Amino acid sequence: MVPADNAFALLAVFFLLAAVGAGLEKTAVGRRVSGVMVVIALAIALAHFNVIPSSAPVYGVIWTWLVPLAIALFLLRADLVGIVIEGGRTLVAFLFGAAGVVAGAWLGARLLDLGPFEAEYAGVFSATYIGGSLNYAAVAEAVGFRDPSALATGVAIDNVVGLGYLLLVGAAATWSVFRSRFAWRAELLEGGASDAPEAQRAPTIIDLSLALGLAALACAGGMAIAARLGQAPYAILYITLLMVAIATLGRRWLQAIAGPELAAMLFMYLFFAMLGAGADLGAMAGAAPALFAYVLVIFAVHVVFILAGARLCRLNHGEIVIASTACIGGPPIAIAFAVLFGWRRLAVPAVATGVLGYVLGNFVGIGLYEVVGG
Prior knowledge:
It is built from 17 helices and no strands. Helix 8 (148-172) packs across helix 13 (260-278). The protein has helices spanning 7-24, 28-33, 35-48, 57-74, 80-111, 118-128, 133-142, 148-172, 176-181, 205-228, 235-249, 251-254, 260-278, 281-313, 317-329, 331-340, 347-373. The N and C termini lie far apart (43 Å). It comes from Luteimonas aestuarii.
């Protein structure tokens, strides 16, 4: 019904899907399924019934321009000084957890047959379980992983198994045996900072203009540097470095800019709608069992590493839970857990470690892709 050459009509559909997905995120069912999965599922259905095409020129625009811009917008908060100061002991647990993700992704690729996209899956899953879905998209773009069916399958497995893991971690946080074995300095968890980060003001035109301008500047600079060094496919790494430098040097006034995450999430909803439109249900079903086992291996090794690190560094159960959820679920989930369990001191470290994951995810994902593929 919507021809591939009608870019505005396709964007209208994708923006509508983004609105539906974001709206459902506010409902009980939507929070469990996630708005991303709703967008992908609806896009798959529309493509299956020939409402929208499986490929179109505008999809390339989303891949090439909007995904890097979204990454840069999220990194506007990546102030390394603040991350180190505010992350504290939770940052140590996070680094152990991130190392576990890398080891698990490498081990799973050695043990399981993931098919022709083995190196690509190692890259995107290690990135997403250190940084988040933004890093999943960025690493996929950097390594040339553009098969919609394979990518959509990965997102679906991530949502299903990832949700199960987060529920398990939430339950474990209340287990007396877990709390007693990792009880060092646990009495300090409820003191200090407020229950949740302060609510930001509504973004203005000035906020969005500055955020988008800085993000575009970092993208332009990163792509130019990568091209000059003969590493154009890995431009996202240089974009990351430039944006982190901007965020760190300008930390005193950039924190006052409201709304960069809002624009970034909108662009990412368009990305996931594009994935759903190009997905092949048959290919997704065939890849699912191996990927399911692969993600379980990653989670198992992640848990071993973070618990071993906690014993070695005498970290408490709250720091373990927040660090693990920051790895697997990202800053919003980590903050929610800190609020849920009344760990006031861990609200800010949850944000700091999650933002560090945005920074590290691209480098880890691309590096592991090279190791597994090489």
